[in-house]
Amino acid sequence: MNFWIILLVLVSVLKVVSGTAQIEIRLLRYVNPGGKGDNGHPCDGRWLFNGSPCDHKIILCVDRAGGSSSINRCAYGRADTGEISNADTITFAGRAGRLSNPFSFRLSTWPGTVKIKVRVTDIDDNSDDFVDFMQNQFSTTEVTYSRTHRVVVKRRTTLSMVIRVYCDQNYYGPQCTTFCRPRNDWMGHYKCDGTSGAKICYQGWRGQTCNQRVNLCGPCQHGSCDRTASVYRCVCDFGYKGTNCETEIDQCVSKPCRNGGQCSTFVTNYICLCPTGWYGSICDNDVNECNYNSCRNNGTCVNTLGSYRCKCDKGWTGTHCDIDVNECAIGDPCNANASCINVPGTFECVCSEGLSGGTCEDINECLEDNPCFGNATCINEHGSFQCFCPEGWTGDQCDIDVNECENNPCLSNSTCTNLEGSFVCVCPAGMNGTYCDLDIDECANSPCVGNSTCVNQDGSFVCSCAKGFAGVLCETDIDECASAPCANNGSCVDHVGTYSCECHSGWAGDLCEEEKDECEGKPCNNNGTCTDLFDDFDCFCARGWTGKACDDDINECLVNDPCSYDGNCTNVLGSFTCECPPNWEGPTCDDDVDECLLSPCENGGSCDNRIGRYSCLCSDGFTGQDCDVDVNECVQNPCFNNGTCLNMNGDYVCTCPPGWSGVNCGQDQDECDTSPCSNGGSCENTEGSFTCSCSVDYSGRLCETFIDNCAGDPCLNHGNCTSAQGTFRCDCSSSWTGERCNDDVNECERNPCQFGSTCINKNGSFTCQCPPEMTGPTCTTDVNECLSNPCINGGDCVNNVGSFHCECHLGFKGRLCGQIDFCGSSPCRHNSTCVSDGSPRCICPKEVFGKFCDIILKNACIDDNTDPVMVNVNGDLDTTGLEALNTTLLQALSNVFAIAAGDIRLVLTPEHSADTDNKPMTTVLVSAFVKDVQICQDELTNVFNTEHILDNALTLPATVIVQKSISDGRVGNLQSTAVFETKENWLISRWYILAVIAGVFIALVAIATVIYKHRRRPKTMVIAGRNGSLYRNGSLTMPEDTGDETSAIASLSFDNVLYTTFQPQGPTPPPATCDNDDVCT
């Protein structure tokens, strides 16, 4: 056991010593002016001619503050972006090349200052070109995740970044070396200070590791004591209030039931009886009646709060869209010259000549029944309408509220609440405005002195001092020249509130720290690129410009006429234009115009593009340059056998005489190929014609005339007659049979009726008598009983085949949820049984008591907890007083445990004696049993205190004393007699010694009683545990005799003493004898 504790402490110490910190770097932007290497040449070109932008690779190194300039010595970490192609200016987002951006390095501790080193190269196929090397020192004492620092490292190129330094979880302090992990267990009860990491004890705990409890608890009747509070606080169970949670709360006082629900209080809860259309524990859930498909004839159900409505298809009306609209009786929807015919669900218009459409005219839906909700504007359209919604509404009919909160209009972490047609922002403290975007501006009173700038912050302000001033309000002037701020031998001139540096030639900047950048004024015109030189600059001009500042236009037309094929060249500033001759185009007139792109060839002709022209290859039947001339083929008489030729556009058609076919009417037509003879007749082809040989029962040229043997309808009962070979055949329906369909079929023999229904045969048919829960021709369609909403009190109806059942909400039961279920909220505790008969009644298991079985007696009182409670009464308690104590305690226990007084047994044993002043006093030993289960001493003592038993029962002053025996090392209130301690394990392992001690104790009590009667002197009896401190090393020490026996006794302590009697008579000698067990007399 000790080994593991030591190991745990060592691990905790190691964690505190190690500590971890993180430095997080987010790259923002890298700029390489002109895309050049360190040698001044373009990265991917030669000398001043740029081939393409640079392919940068950036290596970032974090080293110690005094580290070397080597990019390979990185004490804290090194990051490599890899190649970033074709970019002289790089703006970083979520990635920096192959790195995630930001990236971080872990440090064992934060040193306060680190060196940031950056090496940039240009990646090439043969060898990489060096671009730049930059380094900078970074320092901060603000080690927190919420603080970021913008850092710029610069030499010839510039890299900007944001750095954040913070401690790992559970580490704190400026170097992240303080370890603190919040705990709330046996090792401690504390949280950690967010800056220093110091332990902050939770309420109710104290000590270095917050593991010492502050005991402020008192009696809670229906609740639990909050041991973390700094004062006594009883956390009440639901439904109770008061200092000790003794008062039951009327749950309906707050009117929790909404939407007209009726509230009923029972036990520690309430139940809401919801009106029709609402359900839920507080009637705040709308019943979606549309789930029951209440609307008919394809009506659309629209759920509303507490109800619903049916949006009927055109032609239907009524609550459930089950009433046909007689459109013809409502204003005659058809045109005045049309006739209206009503049909179920719609109507038909028989239009007069000149009218068309369903109603022979357009319907203006906006005039009949404005379908747009609210203040929306309805615009009629042909055959439809359109709703223009006001702000805050949407949907085809403007009936859907726009949830403005989805766009997060509220700022400053405020809460957005959607309203119908609008929204409202609930602002946090310190903010106001419609969108919570207005901060209270402390700078309105101009607290900052001089030309300083006041910066408003949330709940405060900061003065940004003008250069040369300092102080909280910028009230102190600074002599800047005292620190020699000017670099490179610049001369410092002090001014009021500021200073200036007079720089030597070649230097610039406020502190003369920068080489003068002649490119700063952008001297290169017309998009020329400026390169800074010492006391000079060089312009790399864009195409079309020349000169020192790129302001001289190059006349390309004079240098080398760029326009081909005799194009006309015109010089313009920085460029030129070419006016091309026909059939040529392009910037320099060297692109041939493809005339075929304009599809000049008509009638399927194909176009062939040539240099400067085109030609068309025409399809058959067309000619001409663009194939737009038709060829008249009929001039050549192509049709044979007196066929008639008809010229067509690009073709011809021959109309052949009967008996001939083919494109040119040169083929005899075999009419028999098309089987012209009907009903099995055989065809014989002839020159230009054919003949049909008909089968029996048919005649005519094409055998199309049928000899009908079914004339006169010989088949009865709607049987189908088929004529065949001089006779007929009857095909009967399923309900009839026989040669002429005159014999009835008994369908009931096939048992068509389902679910126990009764079949009744009829001539040509049958009927099924269905049970109430089924319907349909054969009783196979289930009746949906849920359509009539049989479940009440918000119960959910579930339809079953042939039946239904109700799923009741909390607090209800029964087939239709019409009975109140008092046990629904499970008021009975500790595995007790709840019986709901008018109100909840809890049947408690053994050793559990109370109205709601919320009181548990201990299964067995441990050690001395079975001892009786000792009541000391100042005076002689007579029989009447003893009976009053018995009656009051009996009634209190009956109320506390919620059981009959007959189930409680009390044992009161009075002992009469006298105090030190020889005044009478009575000691009453009290034990109590509930159904033969003893109430432990601590539980009975708690009842005495919380129910004020002594104050209510006795007129004499009395106190309850907790007396502990030798078997328990804990000592209660012995009226400051002594404090004792024992080794409980020693007694458990040597139980026989406890028996001997008990015998000695009884004997000593008897001796003390005899002495008391004979001597009549006041004595003090002390019952103590082991390991005291009175008698040490064979000597007994007593305080000086003050005449106050009580004070003398109160300061005594014993070593291995079981029982003793003292008579203070002045200085007390050491004990006379001590036996081997160190028992002294």
From TrEMBL:
Q: How does it sit in the membrane?
A: Single-pass type I membrane protein
Give the record's GO CC terms: late endosome; plasma membrane
Q: InterPro entries, from UniProt?
A: DSL, EGF, EGF-like_Ca-bd_dom, EGF-type_Asp/Asn_hydroxyl_site, EGF_Ca-bd_CS, Growth_fac_rcpt_cys_sf, NOTCH1_EGF-like
Instruction: Kindly list the residue ranges recorded as spanning the membrane.
Output: 991-1012
Q: Which CDD domains match?
A: EGF_CA (cd00054)
Name the cystine pairs: 167-176, 180-192, 201-210, 236-245, 274-283, 312-321, 351-360, 389-398, 427-436, 465-474, 503-512, 541-550, 580-589, 618-627, 656-665, 694-703, 732-741, 770-779, 808-817, 844-853
Q: Where is the EGF-like domain?
A: 213-246, 248-284, 286-322, 324-361, 362-399, 401-437, 439-475, 477-513, 515-551, 553-590, 592-628, 630-666, 668-704, 706-742, 744-780, 782-818, 819-854
Q: Which Gene3D superfamilies match?
A: 2.10.25.140, Laminin
State any GO BP term from the record. plasma membrane bounded cell projection organization
Q: Which Pfam families match?
A: DSL, EGF, EGF_CA
A molecular function GO annotation: calcium ion binding
Signal peptide positions are 1-19
Which protein is depicted?
A: Delta-like protein
Q: Which organism is it from?
A: Mizuhopecten yessoensis (Japanese scallop)
